[in-house]
Each structure stands twice: as structure tokens, then as C-alpha cells.
Amino acid sequence: MGAAERPNQRELPIGRQVAQWRVRRRMTQQMLADRLGKSKSWVDKVERGVRTLDRVSVLHDLAGVLRIAPAALLDPARPPTVTVGAVDGVEGVRAALAVGEPSGWRAVGSGAEVAGRLGHAWLTYQHTRYSQLLRILPELLAVVRHAAEAGIIETGTLVRAYRLTGQALVKIGEAELAWLAADRAVTLAAGEPRWCAAGTVPLAQALRSLDRPQLAYAAALAAARQLAAEVPGSPAARALHGALLIEAAFAAADQPDTAVGLDPGTADGLLQQAAASARLVVDGEDPEWTGFGPSAVGLARATAAALAGETDDALERYARLSTRPGWRRLPVEHRAAYLLDVARACLRVGDLLAAGRLVMMAEQTAPAEVRTRPYARDLVTGIIRGGGASSALIRLGTDLGTA
């Protein structure tokens, strides 16, 4: 959310500020209550102004959970300071998206160097090194922007840089800022189908993270249709086309009862189309950093089944897929993210043991995917609160500050 879009927080009571920051961090009132060791009713009363925050210790606890400085609640005019984990680099990325150039950055003189730096950043993402990625993104954006303005690289390379930024921000729970980065990518694409498709991948992810499945579905499907004419001739286009179909399928499966014009069969139809594209893609060949291929479609089917509440089917599909060679060819980020998505679905239907087991498998696959993402911490909190946590998960929860 840009500065122009933010309400004037000077005029907001502290309870309203708490509610706004809670929504920005993608927490329900129950999630916030669980992290604070309070009741949902307590949070509701604070946000409505019925209960005042008159203890400094409670104010500090609340600010810590919301990942802002306590002074941001006491003095809304002061810019909020992010205080926890990998999100320490968010403000630098925010400044870079405002077309600010970090101090000490240097322009590069060749397209090969730009491509090399961007490729290194993508590998950093796929290996779940989110803290490191956030540190390098501000300078990378400045470098790629300068190179595009100088004609050293094509605009599509800058679109990819914004796409990477958007996907990374979704991971760390900054979906609104991810939306801004994705919007930059789509705007730069200027109607070119392949570049527009690249920018729409993080846009759909951000919209789903903000609980807007209808918009995610519409955006992903529109971009996929625009790209469809290029699918037969280009491996990169096929990969992006398939990735967009998967995003649309997830949006349809996650909340089919609230997505206008969708029904539970929509996701399956989209995944059948993705499978057709995947037949022409080899697992591990990833020209657009999508991870798309036959194995990714198989995992997407498992995830869609889980999102639709069919967790037994999802677990059976996962068990089969995880023994195949293509599973190991997927980036660790891809594998761990799928495990967390299915874990969330298991938690929804009350299968706490399966949810806990999947979270621990994700932690073994890519520790940073679990230890960095607020999404994962909320999962761990929910499982522990539900009484279905193993001793290993409780130890993990203690490390994460959720137990």
C-alpha cells in the first residue's frame, strides 16, 4: 500500500491501528490472540476501543507480535520499524519500490552481469534464503532499472526482477507490498503476453494471500489466455502458462463457495489444462524460474485437493509423488511451500497429527521456509493450541516464539 493510499493514522485511535496492522500481517483476531496468550474477545475489545492498553508490557508484547516498534502505536507519525527475523529488510525494499536508490550501489555495464546478478537472486529465493534476498533486492532493483533505462537489457528482465520481489514479499507476509511490486511488473509489461504473464504470477499470489480469490482467479486466467497462443513454440511461455493455470486453480479451490462463478470442479479443469502444458516440459528445466513441470502439476493437484477439504486424497497423492525423481528436481522452496499448504488444509479439517507431520517435513526440507514465514508460524501455533503437537513440533514452536 503506497503512502497516498494509507489513512491518516494520526487520527486513528490505538485500537484501530492495532486492527490495521493485524490485517496487514494477515492475522485473524484469533491468531493475534493466540500469539499474545489472550482471548479473541480481548483482541476484539482492544480494536473497538472498549479495552484500553494501559500496561507497557502488554503494549510491547502487542507490538512484537505485529512486528513493529512500540512507538509506532504510541506515536503513529513515526515510521514503523520492523523488528523480527527476515522482515528486517522490508523497509529497504519498500524504499526501492518507491524508486529510491540505496547508497553505495553501482551501475553495471553489461547485460550479462545484470542477468548473472538476477539469476543469483532467483537461486537465493529458490533456496529459501529470504533474509539474504531482502538485503540484496534494493540494489538489484536499482541496477536492473538503470540497465533497462540505458537499453542494456530488455524490459522483460526488469519485469522478472519485480516479479521476484513480489514473490519474496508474499513469502514474508507483506502481501500488500507484494501487490505493488507485481503491479509494477504488469504495468511495465505493456501488454506483451509473456512479460505480462511473468508479472501476473506474483500478483495472483498476493491477491490470494489477501483473501481475494476472485481477483486472483480472474487475473491469472486472463494472463494465461493471452499467453496461450505462444505455448506451442516456447518452453518459457509453456512454463508461465502452466504456472498461471495453477494459480487460478488454487484460487478456485481455496474458497469455491465465495468465488463468483466458480464451482468445485473448476480447479480440476484448470489443472488438467496445466497437465497438458506440463507434458512438453521436463522437470528441472526452468527457463522462467517457475518450477513448473509434471511434478509441480502433481503437487498442485495434491494441494488443490487439500484446499477443497479432501486431505486424505492430498496425502495419498503427495506420498506417491515424493518417491519419484521429479520431486527432487523441484526447488526446495517449492517442496516446502507445498508441504505447508497441505498442512494448513489438514489443520482446517482438524487433522492435527498430519498437519504437524507435514510442518516438520517442511522444516527438514527447507528450515527457512518454516522459521522465516509468518504463515508457517501461524500453522505451528494452531497445531500446538489444538493439542496435536509432537515434542519436536513443540520444540520448534518454542524456537519460533509461538509455544
From TrEMBL:
Descriptive protein name: Helix-turn-helix domain-containing protein
InterPro entries tied to this protein: Cro/C1-type_HTH, Lambda_DNA-bd_dom_sf
Coiled-coil ranges (or none): none
Organism from which the protein derives: Micromonospora yangpuensis
CDD domains: HTH_XRE
Domain HTH cro/C1-type: 18-73
PROSITE patterns referenced in this protein's UniProt entry, alphabetically: HTH_CROC1
Superkingdom classification of source: Bacteria
GO molecular function, one term: DNA binding
